[in-house]
Specification:
Strand 1, helix 1 and strand 2 form a beta-alpha-beta unit. It is built from 21 helices and 26 strands. The relative contact order is 0.09. The strands form eight sheets. Strands 17, 18, 19, 20, 23 and 26 form a six-stranded antiparallel beta sheet that branches. A four-stranded parallel beta sheet has the order 3-2-1-13. Strands 5-4-9-10 form a four-stranded antiparallel beta sheet, with no helix packed on it. With 684 residues, the chain is α+β, with helices and mostly antiparallel strands. The structure holds one RNA strand of 77 nucleotides.
Length: 684
RNA sequence: GGCGGGGUAGCUCAGGUGGUUAGAGCGUCGGAUUCAUAACCCGAAGGUCACGGGUUCAACUCCCGUCCCCGCUACCA
């Protein structure tokens, strides 16, 4: 049913990297390495395939970064676009096109896409109130508003999230909001936006995903989609008030752009158009013809966009086909911790290429072997070393080297002719012939780890055969026999040079040069006549070198340094701005005793408590349930901010706030008077 | 709290419409070997398949409950 043979062409996309930082091993293992292996395999199968990627260059974070660095957004994306593009290229990720969303062709494509949907009446138009900076005459995106976090009191919280306590916010919740641009307090003003009514397309999505792709999508992808569909979809805004991005192609909408999640996936289409124009072919069949297979490689954080929103857009547009598969991977950790750009806890591709020149294939191998296909996985440098030294080098490299050295020693590097075959010879050749189909099957099911292990089994087959036949013992009495043995070993080497291609392109090429054989199609990989008798081999050279302990140690030290730098940053949480005595005096803080406490149902963090303040009894809700059980809290002496404006939380009115101390690890502890004062005592 | 994914040998992972001794690679130990980058090859040890119930002639595989990890989501005065 999903046999690749029934498809005329393949359109393969890899998630567009966001151009505000470099690429790290998590991106590679999750998306680019598997996608690259898949594409190289298809190409070797002789398929018509286009491999699409590019930089995602719009959105608010880039404009913020530009402002911080005193640059234009274009300068920021130019820098990262080239850094990313060059690193991919050097690493051997063989995109047919690596485009960018700031390119003209993308602006055109995305605007036209929007117009088509607009003309079809797909969108819902709605007015809402948003913060507006009067001095600069512009609406403020969530990230452009800063203010005091209502939760932790941090004074530089953003409109969408507080970076101090991690709470997600909406701009209206911020206390004392300020515009990041002018520093002024913004005002609420009406603005108009366009929404994609995902709810209307729910039946289509249900049938397409839940019924048609029950069996061929990965469980994590299918499950995530089902979860979204069962929760019920709601309209999603596709426009934003911002001056960086694709302008809305409508009259009177200056200052409005497409929201990035609408804009970015269209980037796949724009990139395809760019490629097609250069090549002089028609791009449309790659996206619109039912006999094209469309596959999106992404990480698990992108599932909803690629399985729900983008397909809805394509469907609503009307002339596109929907993706055939979205093989999303889980996440890769590094030395036991989450990879984090802001904490600099990562192995950056451009740094790896510097530290390990010429070792692209080693990283490709390790990342494929430990790819988080079914669950999160951990990358460690020790594992990197072991896989290089004990697998790539000891099994693959060593087999090739043994064969080459023996052939040079006994036959001056000329391929000997095979004579009469023994059972073992025939068995070995028969086994070898099965590899292209076996590996290919795994690849077509997106089981890259399995496929890689199978490829290595071919090298194992060679090693076993060579050891069993012991040509170094037989050469004196029976040189004719040795000719046959080495001929067979060389055929295995030649097969390896074909079948390792998708996984280890640099190594495959090097091996082909060493053997003096051309690149071959995938299905020729198991043949026993890939290298002809009498053919002169080149000198043997090592395919892989040992990774030494010192190199591993250096990488680990680099990471430890990052961790150290990071910790010292965190410990030094800066003081807040100076406040006035008058402001302080406005706060009425009292000692109180907790009379009763219970967990608020259906929440993880909330505790509902009754306090005796000495003056009254009141209800307070606090987010401390992760640190205190209701039972252990009762009877505790606490300090409460008693004149804080009451607020409803989960339907319960909270009349005040209990003062808590928080350490750098995020642990909470009650603040309480040192002596056991009666309830209602004032704090000043 | 709701939802999704996952918890299988020291490590990284396969597996199964329920059925003889639960698999692989790496690591460890032993043997054999010397063509090879002390590598290859052979063999062994290692697992109450997270935990507790249930269904069954039979469960790691199905059902119920619990715990732990990751993600999405709600919540945090």
């Amino acid at each position: 049913m999903n046999n690749n043979k029934s498809y005329k062409r393949h359109t393969v996309t890899a998630a567009l990297p966001y151009a505000n930082g470099p690429i790290h091993i998590g991106h590679l293992a999750g998306v680019y390495v598997p996608a690259d292996i898949y594409v190289r395999y298809l190409r070797q199968k002789g398929k018509d395939v286009v491999y699409i990627c590019g930089s995602d260059e719009h959105g608010v974070p880039i404009t913020i970064k530009a402002r911080q660095e005193n640059k234009t957004p274009q300068q920021v994306v130019d820098y990262y676009h080239h850094l990313i593009k060059d690193a991919f290229q050097e690493f051997g990720i063989a995109f047919d096109v690596y485009s960018r969303t700031s390119a003209d062709i993308h602006h055109e494509t995305a605007a036209a896409f929007f117009t088509t949907l607009y003309d079809k009446g797909v969108f819902v138009e709605q007015e809402s109130e948003q913060y507006f900076d009067e001095e600069n005459q512009q609406f403020l995106a969530d990230r452009y508003i800063t203010g005091t976090c209502p939760h932790c009191g941090y004074e530089s919280a953003y409109g969408d999230q507080c970076e101090s306590c991690g709470t997600s916010l909406s701009p209206a919740e911020l206390i004392k909001p300020r515009s990041v641009i002018s520093g002024n307090s913004p005002v609420m003003r009406k603005t108009r936006h366009w929404y994609l009514p995902l709810d209307k397309y729910e039946p289509m999505l249900r049938e397409w995903i839940l019924e048609n792709h029950k069996d061929d999508w990965k469980p994590n992808v299918y499950g995530q989609c089902k979860s979204w569909l069962d929760l019920g979809l709601i309209p999603r805004g596709v426009t934003r008030d911002l001056d960086w991005g694709v302008q809305l192609p409508l009259e009177g909408t200056e200052g409005k752009v497409l929201y990035v999640w609408f804009d970015a996936p269209i980037g796949y289409i724009s990139a395809t158009r760019e490629w097609a124009a250069e090549k002089g072919v028609d791009w449309k069949p790659y996206w619109k013809s039912p006999d094209s297979k469309l596959v999106h490689f992404i990480g698990k954080d992108n599932i909803v966009f690629h399985c729900i929103m983008f397909p809805t857009m394509l469907h609503a547009e009307g002339s596109y086909k929907l993706p055939d598969n979205v093989p999303a991977n889980e996440f890769l950790n590094l030395e036991g911790d989450k990879i984090s750009t802001s904490r600099n806890w990562a192995v950056w591709l451009h740094e790896y290429l510097q530290d390990f020149p010429g070792k692209q294939d080693v990283l490709r191998y390790v990342l494929c072997a430990t790819a988080p296909e079914t669950k999160d996985n951990d990358f460690t440098w020790k594992d990197f070393q072991a896989r290089n030294n004990h697998e790539l080098l000891a099994i693959f490299g060593n087999f090739v080297n043994r064969t080459m050295v023996l052939t040079h020693k006994y036959f001056d590097g000329r391929v000997p002719e095979a004579g009469d075959m023994t059972d073992n010879d025939r068995e070995t050749l028969k086994n070898m012939a099965a590899f292209p189909a076996k590996i290919g099957e795994s690849l077509e099911l997106y089981r890259f780890r399995e496929a890689l292990a199978e490829m290595m089994n071919l090298a194992r087959l060679g090693n076993r055969y060579l050891t069993e036949e012991e040509p170094w013992k037989k050469f004196k009495e029976d040189p004719e026999r040795v000719k046959t043995i080495l001929n067979i070993c060389l055929q295995v080497c030649a097969s390896l040079s074909v079948l390792s291609g998708p996984f280890l392109p640099f190594t495959a090429h090097k091996l082909q040069e060493m053997l003096g054989v051309p690149a071959r199609a995938w299905d020729e990989g198991g043949r026993s006549d890939l290298i002809a008798p009498g053919h002169q081999l080149n000198q043997p050279a090592f395919l892989f070198e040992k990774v030494e302990d010192e190199q591993v140690k250096a990488q680990l030290e680099k990471l430890m340094q990052a961790r150290k730098d990071n910790q010292s940053d965190e410990d030094a949480k800066p003081f807040k701005e100076t406040t006035t005595f008058d402001d302080f005096a406005k706060m009425d803080m009292r000692t109180a005793t907790i009379l009763s406490a219970e967990k608020v149902p259906k929440t993880k963090k909330l505790l509902k408590m009754t306090l005796d303040t000495g003056i009254d009894q009141r209800t307070v809700v606090a987010g401390i349930a992760e640190f205190y059980n209701p039972e252990e809290v009762v009877g505790k002496k606490v300090v409460v901010l008693a004149n804080l404006e009451p607020r409803k939380i989960k339907g319960i009115e909270s009349q005040g706030m209990i003062l808590m101390a928080e350490n750098p690890d995020g642990d909470l502890a009650f603040v309480k008077p040192e002596k056991d004062f009666e309830n209602g005592s004032t704090i000043s």
